[in-house]
Amino acid sequence: MADIAFLLLIFFLVTTTMNVDTGLQRLLPPMPEDDTQVEQDVKQRNILTVLVNKSDRLLVGGEPMDVTMLREKTREFITNPNNDLDLPEKQVENIEYFGPMEVSRGVISLQNDRGTSYKMYMIVQNELIATYDELRNELSTTRFGKKYGDLNEDEQKAVQKVYPLRISEAEPKSIGGRK
Amino acid sequence: MSKFKKKTDKGTPSISTASLPDIVFMLLFFFMVSTTMRDTEMMVQVRLPEATQVAKLEKKSLVSHIFIGAPSRQYQALLGTDSRIQLNDSFKTLVDIRDFISSERDALGEADKAKLTTSLKIDEDTRMGIVDDVKQELRKASALKISYAARRVENF
């Protein structure tokens, strides 16, 4: 009896996979209804363009940059600590739990080439999301004394309103013939 | 003459194994319940990229997978090493994604249809061209919730 049970046990031990699927979760923008190109009028100071070329080099806001600097740069862009005129505007909004808060209107525009490697793309995505996560965590620790992930749904929504995840990915365009 | 013989000491007595089957069965049931059989055969090689900000995918029944990567060794003679898309158990092309999404969506209940998440399991050496194409197809199919599958690491 025990032998058969052992045999089964070993079989399930070997075949079992305990891994959970993990990943960076994003929302794609919906497809525009018809072919009309909606030109959104966004001020230059409110956009931070992050370009990744086919040799995986970065151009952030017009200057080449190493990926390790990206987090700092986006953080400065979102928070705009000194109310710089070149950095995004802020809008005062009334938010639950917080009262009037200054919300940045900055949008990060991520553009990649068809030849960019997926690895680099993921590193950039990860850094951008990490910046937002850091900011949200800081805010929720000062306000609620808890990490963002431990807040309840309403509190999370309020924090999201203060730091909305605004990463826009440009419509892919192919330049040159390389696929 | 005594009725009870005096026990003679013969070293340490062996541990009773009577409860062993119980323990083994308990473990067996644990693994039987927690096990998930791998249902799709991998036809492309996928080495996931690393990331720190990963989140767990909650409900497995609401997740459909799209694999992108170079074909496995046994298919390389036929297909070369260019990145391919695998849906379920076969190589597919971009145009099949919409059908795939709609069939995945039909399999879900009415309440869960909007919660369908597409997990993109993409090899880290893939070029973004094919990834962008797949994303455009997903947008057309209005499967907007996606997750870029990644391995969790603490820092780079």
In percent, how helical is the residue content of chain B?
25-40%
Instruction: Give the largest interface pair and sizes.
Output: A-B, 44 and 56 residues
Head-to-tail CA distance between termini of chain A: 60 Å
**What's the alpha carbon Rg of chain A, rounded to whole Å?**
22 Å
Protein traits:
heterodimer, A: about 180 residues, alpha/beta, two-stranded antiparallel ribbon, B: about 160 residues, Nucleotidyltransferase, domain 5, six-stranded mixed sheet, elongated
Give a verbal description of the structure.
The complex is a heterodimer of chains A (179) and B (156). Chain A has 179 residues and is α/β, with parallel strands linked by helices. Chain A has 4 helices and 8 strands. In chain A, the strands form 2 sheets. Chain A has a 5-stranded mixed β-sheet with strand order 4-3-2-7-8, with helices on one face. In chain A, a hairpin with a 2-residue loop joins β3 (58-60) and β4. The mean pLDDT of chain A is 83. By secondary structure, chain B is of the alpha/beta class. Chain B has a domain at 44-152: Nucleotidyltransferase, domain 5. Chain B contains 4 helices and 9 strands; from the N terminus they run αββββαββαβαββ. Chain B has helices at 20-34, 73-79, 96-107, 128-140; strands at residues 44-45, 50-51, 55-56, 63-71, 84-87, 90-92, 117-122, 145-149, 151-152. In chain B, strands 1, 4, 5, 6, 7 and 8 form a 6-stranded mixed β-sheet that branches. In chain B, a hairpin with a 2-residue loop joins β5 (84-87) and β6. The relative contact order of chain B is 0.19. At the A-B interface, α1, β1 and α3 of A face α1, β2, β3, β7 and α4 of B. β1 (22-27) of chain A pairs antiparallel with β8 (145-149) of chain B, so a sheet runs across the interface.
